[in-house]
C-alpha cells in the first residue's frame, strides 16, 4: 500500500542483465529458479533462448498465454523433467496426468470442489486455525516464534480434518518429513532430468522410485486408518466425496490407486502452497505496518473466530485483497512449463514440435507492461472497487482447462487463517537479513524467520 514513505517494495532477486550462460542457469534452476529470468523478460512479452540444443520461449503476452493454456492446450504437455520430479510424489494424479486419464479425473473430482462443497468444510478449517493460533500464542509468551513450521502444521491439520475427518497428530510429522526430504534432493531438477527422454533412465530415477515405494505404503496406511476411524463430526470430508463421486460421462469412480494419487496431489499442493502464502503475507505485512493495521481492524470487526462463515461472506474484503496481492508477488507455482507436441503460432512467434514454452507467473505478475508499480506491495489493487487485472496477466492458479481445481478451497483457507492471525496478534519482524525466495518446486522462503507476536 502506498504511504508517505512511498510504495513498499519487498526484496527480490535482481534479474541478470543478460541471459545466463549454461552453468549459472542450471544453478539458478536448481537453487532459486526465479533468478534465472533476465531483465528483458520483465519488459518484453516474448523472449527466446536456446539451451542444450532446445529452443524455449518465455511468454508473458496475454493472448499468447491464452493460446497455450486455453485455445490449444492439447498441443502443450508436461515436460519430461516435470514428470520425473513430480510423479514419485503425485503418481498419476490430476496435476501431471494428460489426455483421457486427466479428463476422467477432472470430471470426477469437480463435484468435490464446488463452492458449496468448500463452504461445508469451513468449520473444519476454522477449528484447525483456532488450534494453531492457541499453540502460537503459547510460544509467543516465551519470545519470537518461528511461524513457518506452525503454518506447515496448520496446513497439514486442515488437510487431515477436511480430507480424513481426523487430525494429523499420528501422521503429520512423518508426512512433513518425507515431503521436506524429497524436496531437498530428489525434488530438485538436474541436468539429465531436462535433456533425457522420459523413457531413458536418469541418475535420480532409482532413488525416486525407492521413495515412491515408501510414500505409497505410507499413504495407503493413512487411508486405511481413516477407514476404521469414526468421523469427527457431522461434516462430510473430501475422502467421502471422492469415494462416492462418479465421472458424469462414464459413471466410473476412482480405483484405490487413483484415489491415493488424488490424496497425494491434494496433500502436496495444499500443504506447501498455503503455508508459504501465509508466511509471505506475514512478511509483507511486517514491511508495511499501516496495511497490517488496516487488515487487522477488518479481521477483528468481522468476528472471524466466532463466525468464520459469516466473516467470509463479504466481511474480509481487505484481508482477501492482501492474500491476492501476496499471490501476485509470490505465486506458489512460479512457472508453468509446457512442451509443444506440434507446430503452432504463439503471439506471432512460430512454435515447432519440441519447443519449450514457459509462462512464469513470477515474471508475469511483475511485468512492466501489465502492472502499475509492479514490484510494490499494494493490496488495494484487488479491492472490489479497483479495476480488475487484464485477463491472463494474473495466474496464481493457472488458467484454462487445467486451472487449479482447489483454488476456491485454497483462498478460503488462506483468508480465514490470515484473518485469525491478524485479529489476535500484532506481527513484527526483528531486524536482520531480508527473507528471499528459494523457488525450486514452489515459491518457498530461503529461511524460516522468527516473528515477534504481541496479543492485540
UniProtKB/TrEMBL annotation:
Family classification: Belongs to the cytochrome P450 family.
Q: From what superkingdom does this record's organism come?
A: Bacteria
Membrane-crossing segments per the record: none
**What Pfam families does the database record attribute to this sequence?**
p450
Q: Which Gene3D superfamilies does the UniProt entry name for this protein?
A: Cytochrome P450 (1.10.630.10)
Query: Which InterPro entries does the UniProt entry name for this protein?
Result: Cyt_P450, Cyt_P450_CS, Cyt_P450_E_grp-I, Cyt_P450_sf, Cytochrome_P450_monoxygenase
Record-given protein name: Cytochrome P450
- UniProt keyword list: Heme, Iron, Metal-binding, Monooxygenase, Oxidoreductase
Output the SUPFAM superfamilies linked to this UniProt entry.
Cytochrome P450
The coenzyme or cofactor needed here is:
heme
Amino acid at each position: 500500500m502506498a504511504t508517505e514513505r512511498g510504495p513498499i517494495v519487498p526484496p527480490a532477486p535482481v534479474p541478470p542483465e543478460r541471459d545466463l550462460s549454461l552453468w549459472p542457469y542450471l544453478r539458478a534452476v536448481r537453487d532459486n529458479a526465479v533468478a534465472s529470468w533476465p531483465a528483458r523478460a520483465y519488459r518484453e512479452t516474448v523472449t527466446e533462448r536456446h539451451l542444450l540444443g532446445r529452443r524455449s520461449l518465455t511468454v508473458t503476452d496475454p493472448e499468447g498465454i491464452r493460446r497455450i493454456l486455453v485455445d490449444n492446450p492439447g498441443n502443450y504437455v508436461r515436460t519430461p523433467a516435470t514428470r520425473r520430479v513430480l510423479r514419485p510424489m503425485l503418481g498419476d494424479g490430476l496435476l501431471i496426468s494428460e489426455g483421457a486419464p486427466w479428463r476422467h479425473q477432472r470430471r470426477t473430482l469437480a463435484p468435490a470442489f464446488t463452492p458449496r462443497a468448500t463452504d461445508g468444510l469451513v468449520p473444519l478449517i476454522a477449528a484447525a486455525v483456532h488450534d494453531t493460533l492457541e499453540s502460537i500464542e503459547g510460544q509467543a509468551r516465551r519470545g519470537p516464534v518461528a511461524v513457518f513450521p506452525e503454518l506447515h502444521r496448520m496446513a497439514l491439520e486442515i488437510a487431515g480434518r477436511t480430507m480424513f475427518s481426523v487430525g494429523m497428530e499420528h501422521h503429520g510429522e512423518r508426512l512433513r518429513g518425507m515431503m521436506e526430504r524429497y524436496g531437498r534432493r530428489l525434488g530438485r531438477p538436474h541436468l539429465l532430468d531436462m535433456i533425457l527422454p522420459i523413457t531413458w533412465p536418469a541418475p535420480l530415477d532409482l532413488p525416486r522410485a525407492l521413495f515412491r515405494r515408501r510414500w505409497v505404503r505410507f499413504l495407503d496406511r493413512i487411508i486405511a486408518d481413516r477407514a476404521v476411524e469414526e468421523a469427527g463430526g457431522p461434516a462430510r470430508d473430501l475422502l467421502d466425496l471422492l469415494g462416492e463421486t462418479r465421472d458424469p460421462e462414464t459413471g466410473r469412480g476412482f480405483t484405490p490407486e487413483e484415489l491415493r494419487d488424488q490424496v497425494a496431489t491434494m496433500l502436496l499442493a495444499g500443504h506447501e502452497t498455503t503455508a508459504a502464502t501465509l508466511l509471505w503475507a506475514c512478511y509483507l505485512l511486517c514491511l508495511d505496518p499501516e496495511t497490517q493495521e488496516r487488515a487487522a481492524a477488518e479481521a477483528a470487526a468481522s468476528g472471524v473466530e466466532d463466525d468464520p462463515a459469516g466473516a467470509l461472506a463479504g466481511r474480509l474484503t481487505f484481508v482477501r485483497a492482501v492474500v491476492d496481492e501476496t499471490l501476485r508477488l509470490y505465486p506458489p507455482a512460479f512457472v508453468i512449463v509446457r512442451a509443444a507436441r506440434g507446430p503452432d503460432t504463439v503471439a506471432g512467434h512460430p512454435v515447432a514440435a519440441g519447443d519449450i514454452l514457459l509462462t512464469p507467473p513470477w515474471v508475469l505478475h511483475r511485468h512492466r507492461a501489465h502492472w502499475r508499480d509492479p514490484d510494490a506491495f499494494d493490496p488495494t489493487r484487488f479491492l472490489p472497487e479497483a479495476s480488475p487485472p487484464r485477463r491472463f496477466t494474473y495466474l496464481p492458479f493457472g488458467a484454462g482447462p487445467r486451472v487449479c481445481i482447489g483454488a476456491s478451497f485454497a483462498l478460503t483457507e488462506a483468508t480465514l487463517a490470515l484473518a485469525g492471525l491478524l485479529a489476535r496478534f500484532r506481527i513484527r519482524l526483528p531486524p536482520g537479513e531480508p527473507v528471499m525466495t528459494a523457488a525450486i518446486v514452489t515459491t518457498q522462503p530461503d529461511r524460516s524467520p522468527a516473528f515477534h507476536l504481541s496479543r492485540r
